[in-house]
Specification:
alpha/beta, Rossmann fold, 7 helices, 9 strands, about 25% strand
């Protein structure tokens, strides 16, 4: 598939994200997602972060398998999570669940630095290769148990978790900066809700649920 065809498909993907956001505005509490997020979604080549045989499907608004029983998330959900995360140019972000690096690329465009933890070594290695080949430098990936965060580089202004858990891991709450925000799916496999967790300046935790989602379960060691 030619690059110009992929560019057109990526533009259509962003249009679908915008339409879907409008249709779910009641759940989201807004009619449109952050313009900065939408611009980055339209720039980052999702086809670079899927297996070669799935490149023709890279811009469909659906999750895709990337091996090891993992998936690259649906583009609309990625955009919603980025919007909710409210990443700032000076933010230090922790991502749990690197996959093949798509969200790292988006976060690297939005934030000052990205720290990403992946439990599957093969995925972490491949994500590093793809991201470096594309010229990204403001990120670091390590293999490990993402539920434990990355204490050596804490606290983090923002934390995003691309897998579901029955509750927010305590280590992630501890590693969130005062004034920080964490976005992840919470709940059992049949009842997950996309959830925003905020820590105020006094260290108090505030939680709000937004919409039903379906993610793979957060693996721990």
């Amino acid at each position: 598939m030619k690059e110009e065809h992929l560019t057109i498909l990526r533009r259509h993907m962003v249009e679908v994200i915008g339409i879907t956001a409008d249709l779910t505005s009641q759940e989201l509490g807004k009619d449109a997602l952050d313009a900065r997020v939408m611009e980055v979604m339209g720039r980052v080549p999702r086809h670079e972060f899927v297996p070669t045989e799935l490149v023709p499907m890279a811009y469909e608004n659906s999750p895709l398998p990337i091996g090891f029983d993992k998936t690259i998330s649906q583009p609309f959900i990625v955009a919603v999570m980025m919007d909710l995360l409210n990443v700032q140019p000076d933010s230090s972000v922790l991502e749990v669940g690197t996959g093949l690096g798509y969200q790292v690329a988006i976060l690297a465009e939005l934030a000052r630095e990205v720290w990403s933890v992946e439990i599957v070594e093969e995925l972490a290695t491949e994500a590093e290769r793809r991201l470096r080949r594309m010229g990204y430098v403001n990120f670091t990936i390590r293999v490990g148990d993402g539920s434990k965060g990355w204490p050596e580089h804490a606290p983090f202004d923002r934390i995003i978790v691309a897998a579901a858990s029955a509750h927010v891991p305590a280590a992630l709450i501890e590693q969130l900066s005062p004034g920080g925000r964490l976005v992840m799916p919470i709940g059992p496999s049949e009842g997950q809700r996309l959830t925003v967790i905020e820590k105020d300046d006094a260290g108090q935790i505030h939680t709000r649920d937004l919409m039903p989602v379906r993610f793979t379960t957060l693996e721990t060691m």
